[in-house]
Every structure is written in C-alpha cells, then in structure tokens.
Protein 1
Amino acid sequence: MSQTIEVIGGVDTHTDVHQAAVIDTIGRHLATEAFPTTPAGYRDLLEWLQSHGRVLVVGMEGTGSFGAELGRHLRGNQIAVIEVDRPDRRARRAAGKSDPIDAYAAATAVLAGRATGTPKHRDGAVEAIRGLRVVRASAVKARTQTINQMKSLIITAPAEVREALRSLTTTELVRRLTASRPGTDLATPATAVRLALKRLARRYRHLSEEIADADADLRGLITHAAPGLLALTGVGPETAGQLLVTAGDNPNRLSSEASFAHLCAAAPVPASSGRTDRHRLNRGGDRQANRALHTIVLVRMRHDPRTRAYVARRTIEGLKTKDIFRCLKRFVAREVYHHLTSTISCTPGPSPTA
C-alpha cells in the first residue's frame, strides 16, 4: 500500500450498496467502486481506500441514515468523516446523476472546502435516547388516535351507552370501560359498541404504561448524558431528549452557543427595510428542536416568575408577542447549550433580564 500519496474519499450511501470514490489532493479522480452495506463490506471499503494512499478524510452523504454504521466504522479506525450535502440542482444538471458521480462529488466538496460539517456521533447515550424516543413518539400518537376513536364511538353509540359515558373524564372513562362487562350478544349494536370501547380502553391503558416506561428510561439516560438539564425550568424528558438528539453525542462539534441556536432555528434573522429595524423568527433549522424550545418557553411564561416579569417589561416597551418569543427562545438555547456541552451538573442560568 502506498503511503506517499494523500487521498480523500467520497461515499454515496444507499440501503444495500455504498458507492465509494477516491481522489488525490489536487482533485484527480483515481477510482470508484461499490461495496455492500455489511460489516465485511465496510472493512473492504476502508481497505480499498487505504490501498490508494494515506486517507486524510472521507466525505459522506447520509451520515444520519444509510451511512450511520459506515461512519461509526470509519471513526473507529481513526478516519475523519465530513458530512456532505446533496449537490444542488444546478450542479446535478451540469454534471449528471449517477452513484459514481455523486461519490466523486462528495470527495470534491471536501477538498474544495464546501463541506466542513462534523456529523453526529451515533455511538453513545444520545443515540440510545433517539431510539427510545422513536418508540415513545409512536406510542403517544397511537394513544391519541385511540382516545379519539373511543370518543367518536361514544358519539354514535346507542343512547343507553352514550348517556352513561359522555360526561366522563378520560381517566374515569378508561377506568370504567376497562372494568366493564359488555355482554355476549354481539349482534346487538349496544353490546358490540361496549366491547369495542372496552378493547380500546385496554389499548389506551397499555399505551400509557408504555409511555411511562419510556419516560422512566429516558430520564435516566438524559441525566447521564447531560447532568442538570432536567433541572432547568420548563425542561422535561421529552424536550430534553429532543434537544440532546439535535446536538448529538458530540455537541462540541457545534463551535458556539450561537451555532446551536442556528441549528434550533432560534437565532434572530435580520428583517429590516428602510426605516424599519427589526429581526424575525428563523423558519429554518431543526423544526423539532425549535418545537422543544417553544414548549419550554410556553411553560416558563405560565409558571416562571422571572420569565413572566420579562414578558411584562418587554410588552410595555412595545415588543410584539412573536418577538418576545424569539428573544426567549434565543435565551433558552443559550442556557441549554451550556448544559449540553458540560459534564458537570450546574444550577439554572441567569435571568433573561441579565
């Protein structure tokens, strides 16, 4: 294997096959080859890259999806990985579209300095949190669907069933239906509805237990990954988990708290024109992270005295509600970032008025 040549790799990732390419430090295309997405294929891909020279870095599309395991394999062998965005439409029209072309484009983007982002590491506690949150989210969605189905059935149920259930709270409704005895004559609509409601109530209870178990597991993982994060006002397992997933197992890849705010779409965007000097909300970035910040701000505006005082003061100064939200989201992003990048538990940060 030649060690006198320095090379840069590029990978176009897919479900079953990864297309790899290699170029030298002046951009010459050296070779391209496809490898299966198996442990043996990952080893062969790395050996193939190293057979062309000393690998400086590998640019890869899809580091968060199809290329996640390959990225772990490369990092485990001390190969730096750079995340590469898909080429824009103009570049695709000019160069064409194929797997080898995309693999070469990934390597060229790294060499040209167009791709510089460090991908998330997916080999720690945050990756475990991401997996559990997927299950929790689907359980929450299914539980919401279940209670909606129950209430819809009650609306159209025969009078003797509807009148006995329509005024009950969700908790009492589930408790009563779970303990009910519908009867055996399923040809009678009332009996069939009672049986359907009982089964939906049992499903609702099972999903609630599943969500509670996920919350308990997530709380322990979040406490391990970012001590002190759950101590922040308005931050719960759901919002903390989302912010951790957004930052990844290596939050230090974010150069500053401002970059984390941009990632969460909480950085102010200039919207000035003529005599108007203002900023607006950022509608880009990770929308789920922005949603988590929005939830935290809503909780603080209702229950946190310092936030309520800040809102009152800024309202008197003439700031609109959406602009107050923008300022508070930016502050929360700053506060959260310091907890994400610290391994030492600390108290909540300063007041927004500071």
Protein 2
Amino acid sequence: MTDTTAVRVDTPGSPATARLLSEAAGAIDAPDLVLAVSRNGVRTVHTGGSGEPGPVPRELLGYELGSASKPYAGLLLARLVAQGRVRYADRAADLLAPGLPVHPAVRRITLRHLLTHTSGLPGLPADFYPQAVPRWSTDPYGGYPADRVVRAFLRARPRRRPGTRWHYSNFAVSVLGHTLAAATGTPWEVLLHQQVLAPLRLDATRLRPGPEGAEAVGHRRDGTPVPALDTGGFTAAGAVRATPLDLLTFLEAHLEDRPGGPGLRDPTLGAALADVSRPLLRRGLRHAHTHTLTWFHHPSPYGPVLFHAGATLGQQAFLGFRPDTGLAVAATATRRVHRADTFVATAYGLLTETP
C-alpha cells in the first residue's frame, strides 16, 4: 500500500516529484518504506511497503538510523568547538582519563581523528566479538556498556599512526561520544538534545524507543520482526531514532541561509553547520574519495552531494543533501540489508540523478 503526499499544505509538493518517488519505491522491497524529498523547503513524501500500515502514519513513526546517526555526533562536536568548549585537536585520552598511562598512539588520537575515522582504531573492539556472536542477530551491542568501550579505548594498541589512514570505526565515534560527555560533564543524551535536537526543533528525534506504537518495527530478510536496537555503549555511533519528517528538518538545516534559519539564529550553530559541510580529507586510490567531518562527499551532475547511510538489525536509513540546489533526501525502510538490496542505491539515485 502506498501514498504520496505534500506535507506542507501551504506549498504543495511537486506532482513530478511524487511520480519520481512512486517509481523509485517500486525498486525497494520492505514492509515499511518512506521516501521523502525537500526542494528548497517544499516537501514531498511517499510512503508504502509490503506490510499493512498501522494506526500511526509511516512518516510519523520513529526509525532506527544506525550509522546515519553519525552526522548528529559530528554536528554536536562542531558546535562545541564553535562555542570554544573543546577543540578538534584535543586529545581524547587527556579528556577521558587525565594522567592515565596509555599507548603512545592512543595518546595522539584527537577528537577530529575519532570523528573522521582516522584514529587507527578498529571498527569494533577486539573483545566485542566473543560476547556479540552468540546473539549477533538479536542483540550484539547491548552486552557491551559504556564503561567497557572506554576501557577498551584506553588499553588499545592502534596498528597505524593516527591521521595516516581512513578506516571506518563505530568504536572511534562511540569513544568520541564518551569523551564529549566527560569533557562537558553532561551525559551524551542530554548533550545531544541541548546542542542539536532542541535548537533544530527536532522534537521527534530521540536516542531511546518511544511509546508503544510510535516506533517502526524492523524485520529480518524473511519478514520476521526483530526487537528494537540496544546500542549499549556505542550510543554516539548509532542510537538516533527519528521520523522521516524530522530527518528532512535536520537536512534542511544544512541548507538554510535565509533569515530565520538556524545558522542565523545562533552563530555557533551556523558555524557548526558550515564546518560539517566543508570537504576535509581525501582517501582511497588516487585520493578519489572526499569526506567532510562527518559526511561522505561525492560529485554529481548538479553539484556536490553529502550523504550518510545506516543499517540496524532490521532497518535502514539514508540521509543526503545537495547544497547547490537545495535538495534533501531522507529514506527509511524496515527490512535488514542484504547483498542484493536496492535501498541505498535507490535513495542515492534520487539525490544524485534528480534535476
């Protein structure tokens, strides 16, 4: 069952965009699917899926973002830097455990290294896997709490010098979250709400499951429902949940420079939004891949695109925006990713191939 609606009734969405989203949805198999587009603030939202819709419209359900949570962590760090509370070059170990002896490579890891996946840390701590494998398909993270993440960092032995190689790491971004909480004396959940969610008016974005019936239910590939994700001590790397409409609001904030936009209401927020959108590093063969502090950064026929995808045990999310044309794309689906999955490719196509 599908539906395509213009969410802002004062500025109806484009019929052409509605048709485009409907066609794109046909390529994705999931019990619940939302494709949402904003063009200079005018929104068009397509909802559908193979499952029966519930009493709450799909675009108003909270979806697990998984790794698409990282742009929220990046914006938080950038704002704290803009406020002068921390610096990108601050060393994480000095903030987490001042004076504690650590490996020299760990001592050199900065906040920037943690966020940009250049810390030299592995994707996950080595001792994460023994406790996770027995429950890999149900709850791999819940048994690894925050204090264990911090201890794993402080006793780590990075194989590479920080800043020399890009290697995607949920471990590193999780350490960043705990480091910022220690540096500010504020729990991560409270800090994110104060610095990002409340200023951007993201009232339907949270780090924990909402009331029963308010959250989308993830599914395995065979359609079996899975429980809500517990990220354990890896909150900063993947715990954000949001409605597709809130996702558009988050993306639109990165595009706003008009009077009343969040950047103009608060200079530190404006500076942070600009900072996370600026190309910062290159990696890969011939340095072909560009990244900002927190977004993947690719060229397109219509200008650069910035994006991030994420997946959990039973859900997927995609966030992206095109600064030159005011286009933002948010997509969510309630089926676990698989090898032949078309979700990310379809959402990415909407961002890069749409005039």
Protein 3
Amino acid sequence: MDARRRDPASRLSRRGGRLLLGASFALIAAVTVVDILAPPEVHLGPFLIAAPAVTASFAGPRMTAFVGAVAVLAQSVVAIARTSLTDLNHTYQIIALILISVIVTFFAYLREQHENKVTQLRSIAQAAQSVVLRPLPHRAGPLHIASVYLAAEEEAQMGGDLYAAARTASGTRLLIGDARGKGLDAISEASLVLGAFRVTARRESELPALVGHLEAGVGSAEEPEDLSAPGPGTGEAADDAAEAFVTALVLDIPDREPVVRLVNCGHPPPLLLRRGQIVPLDTAEASPPLGLADVLSPAVTVETFPFEVGDVLLLYTDGVVEARDRSRAFYPLTERLAAWIGEDPPTLLGHLRDDLRAYAGGHLGDDAALVAVERLAPQP
C-alpha cells in the first residue's frame, strides 16, 4: 500500500472555489441593488473592489478579469440609475475599479504561473522518486508488510525518505532511512543507499558488513574525479559530499526465529506493538548515520529483540514525529497509535495516514514514510 492520494483535498478546493466565486457575484449584485436604492449621499460603489480582489486569491487571471468586468458593468449601471456616466464621482469610481481589476488580474496571472511551476517540479520529483522507491511486497515469508509514503506540501521539495525489502535464504531484510535535505539531491542520495542495499542485502550474511556497503555508497556520486586539479565549484561539491548523510534502520527478521535483529544508524527507533502495549526498540548504542563513519565512531552494533507471532513492528521517518498542528505541537505518535493496536498493517497505516494529515492540517513540512510489519503464524 503506497498512499499518495490527494483527490479528496482537490475536490474540497474546487468546491470552495465555486463557493467563493458565487459569493463574489452575490456581493456585486447586493452592492448594485443597495446602491441604486440608497439615498443620494450614500455611495457603496467602492465595495465592488472586493469582488475581483477576492477572486484573484483562488481563481485564474481570466476569471478574475471577468469578475472585474462584471463589477465595472455594475458600477456603470449604478451611475446611469442614479445620475449619469459622466458624473464626476461615478467616473472616478469606475476608473479606480478598472485599475484595481487590472492589477489583481496581473497578480492572479503571477500566482497561476507559480503554481504551474510548482506542479511541474513536483511531478518531476515524484517521477524520479517513483523510479527509486519501489513498492514493498505485501508478503515476505511469514511477514505481512504495508507501507505509506506521504509527500511534503511545501513547494515541490520531495524528501529523501526511503525503504526497501529483500529476501534472503533465512529471512527478510528491511531498510528504512531518511537522506539529509530535500529535492533531487536527497533523492539521489537515497538512490545510492537503495542500490547498495538491493545489491548486497542477499549476499552479506552479517548486518555489519551490509551496513558497511551502505556507508560506502553515501556521497559517492559527489566525489570529484580529479582531486589534484580543483576547478570552479570543486570546494562546494566537496563540502556537500562531506555533509551528506542518511539516517537508517537495517533489520534482519529470520523466518524460523521469533526475533528481529537491527542496526540503528541515527534513526528514530521502531515501535513494537504487542498485546496492547507499545514498546520502543531503543538500542543501547546507536551507530552513526550513514556517511559519517569518518567523523564519528564507525562501530556497528547489532541488537536483538523478540518479535513473535502477532507482533507488529512500526518503522517510520522523522517526518512523522516532527509533523506539527496549528499550535506547533509535534505529532504524538505513541499516543495516537494506542487506538489502533491489533489492526493489520494496511489498516493500521491507513488510520495513521489519515490522522497525520488531519493533525497537520493537510500540510506536512517534511516527507513521511511508514512501514508496518506483522509476523504471521508459519504455514505448513
């Protein structure tokens, strides 16, 4: 399950736009009627400016210009009904309304161009990410797996959240991580880690060796070809390579042992859902994020935790716990998760996805990835 649905939000946006457009025309009609019937010393024509101004905030330049033209026509009708088009007061009101309508139409044009650019950039980023981030299998041996990816709503910046699964002769290996930064650079970094995982996850028998291969992949695409002949921008590229890192969890789940072995490389700890309880799988000693082994201690610690039939393991990236509501409070993942203990992975992630979007008001500041894994009873 890979959720990227925005259709309900789009329908609500279109419905709200139609309501606001109707309100603009209703305002023009109301001001026109009241202004015609009002005493001579009362002039409500300036209120007509609000109609094209409000329309420019949600509609395109054509609709904004049309509403402005209707407002100008309404002001002309008021002028004819009350005095004449050549009346100085009404003439200035009409000229002011025309100028403001032109200005807000121009702003509507700029906003539409910006939105088109953002949509195009987002589609490019999503296409690149869809190639890199393959869907997880629903079943892997005795495991039931579900995944959700939620893209951030800020501009067109896609994050470097990643996940992958690989079957070995004795079990299943899982990877979830988050590359530093946003956009195509983060996606590129994520692709290096995913490529290294897919190549070596089945070959390496030990997790430390696998983590070593993932470590070697981070920032490898940014290394300059000739260090002895620096050119323009070489120093910046070297700095970017030095700052590139990926937080990650690497897990090995044997088919015939009720355990999970994991290496935590600076990533939020997974949550184990068991018999109505939520247990964070905190490691005693976390390894450094991938790409920082030369700066921090390169020690890789593998820890083992029970993972029995009926247990559900929840993996997530920091975009989940760093989502904020209107009061800027972080998303209380453990508290919200308690309401859905006992659900299967697809249902659990469906609840979390909807609740996270509602909590953040539909606008996530960072990409968020969720993976739920349930151990099923072994089949004959």
Protein 4
Amino acid sequence: MTSVPNGWVCLYPQGDRVTEDSSLTSQTVTMSLDNRGLAYADGFFTTIGVIDGLILWSDYHYQRLVSHAEALQLNINSEELLAVLQLYAQQLEQGMLKLVVTRAAQDVRGYGYTPSADGSDCEIWLKATAMRVSTALQLSLPDGNLIPIQPYASAICLSSQIACLPPPLAGLKSLNRLDNVLASGELQQIKAEPLASKLASTLSEGLLRDMSGQWVEGTMSNVFYQLAEAPLSESKTAFSIHKDNENYLTTGQWYTPSMAQSGVAGVMRQVIIDALSTTQYPVIIRSLQDEDLPKLTQLFFCNALRGIMPMSSLTLLSGDVVDFESA
C-alpha cells in the first residue's frame, strides 16, 4: 500500500474532484500566500484520531464537516471526503489526521466572496502524523463505546478570555483561534514559573471565560462539571471518580457550558452528551459562573484525541484551590 505522504497535501482541488485514487497520489505542495484561510481565517479545521487504521468517532467528524460547510457556505462533498480520510487512516494505522478547509481564491477583492458556486469553492488540506494515541486506560460508555481516560491532573483558572461570537460562528472550530493561542501561552508561562514548580508538575489544562464572564472551556478541550447541589450530592464522596469505576459517568449529574455564544462544540463533548442522553442523569447544558467554582465537586476536560482528562483540583483566580475527591 502507498505510504502516507509527509507534510501537508492538497486533497482538493486536484483535477476536478477528490477521488480515492487521487488521494493516494497527492503530492506535497505549497499553500499560496493568497490563501483565504491564511489571509482571513476563512475556513475551519478538525483534528482526527486514528487507531488500527480506523477514524475515531467518524460519524461525529462527518457531522462536523456537514455543519461547518453549511455554516460557512462552503461546497464540500462530506461523504466523499470522509471516504478519502478513511483511506489515509488505513495507511497511517495510528496517529492523527489534521484537516484544514479554506475558501478558494475569489475574484472579489478583500473579504468578500461571490454569491455563486465559485464563492463556495474551497481548498482542502491534510496532514497525517504518526503518533501514539493513548488507550492504556479506557472507560466504557453506556452505549458500549470505549473512551480513553487520562491520569489525574490539575487545572487553573486563566485570566485570558475567549471571544463571544454571533450565530452561525459560535461553536465552530474555525481557523481563527487567536484567543486560544494567547490562553495557551498564559498556561505555558504559568508552568514555567519557578514558584509554581509544584503546581506545574501536575498542571495540564486551564479553564477559560468568555467576554461575558462565563467559564466555557479549556485551552484545547471542553469541560464537564458536577456541583454540590446536584442530585445524590450529600457529600463529595458520592461523586468520587475512581479509575476502576466503570460507571462514574452515570453517577451524579454532569453539566457542561453552552456553546451558543462562545467556545468550540467539540466532537468528544457531543459523544459524551449523546452517550448519557438515555441514562438517569442526562447531561444538562448550564452556564458556569464565578459563584459556582467553590461548589464544584468534580471537573473533567475532554477532546477527541485524549478522551476524558479528570482533574484532582482547580486553582481559582484568587489563588484558592478547590480540591476534588479522587482515587
């Protein structure tokens, strides 16, 4: 079988359409400086995990292709594109596929694009990276699917904020991620501070507010939480997360913030919401406010590559630490 090309490849345009044969012969090419993704962040991306030659959560990545193409008015054959991605996954065997879709160059000068088929044309770029996708510890979801669960770590509230966006941009994994870039830089700076060496040894994620003051997500992940007022919450012990407890996601009420005005509606976030939808405690979409933070009894972050990342503590902006029960 043909090996996966190194570096970025352009899947489309290539000839007049993306095909299975053309995907296997794509050559590494250079993106034009006139590319609208580079110039205006006019496009979106998605990061896909691959294990044993299969795309993880392929149905959810397909829905992202469909929803993002519709929101940004891009002409994408999502079924055909997913089939091509699966061919690359088979060649990669284990690792990560990063897909970037940008609007094609326009005759209209500046930001605008033509209200025609040409205005919806796009360029599709792909990079395949061989890497180990952690599956050492896995949790069985109520629907039978397995999801990776990472070792316990700690989180910190960051002073950086993310943008509030209008429909249909809120929730999209658009190419404009400057707020996340700056927030990730703040997190790395905290890790590098000599006085924070004890915290930095376990610090893995930062909790972010949007410009309205609501806590929404992590720098690279979505967030789920439990509160002291939640059902079955007579004590924090009732919500203890144990790595050998296969039912911990169905013990107690989980909440996750809305993506209606900010944040990225992640693939793993939706997997968890759907998996718990028929259980005793379906996930409730609920804003996370400053006054909620001291009342948190559990907190985890999640994304499509790392699965669930449970936290043992959260450091607040005040410096106070909220400790969670752990195994």
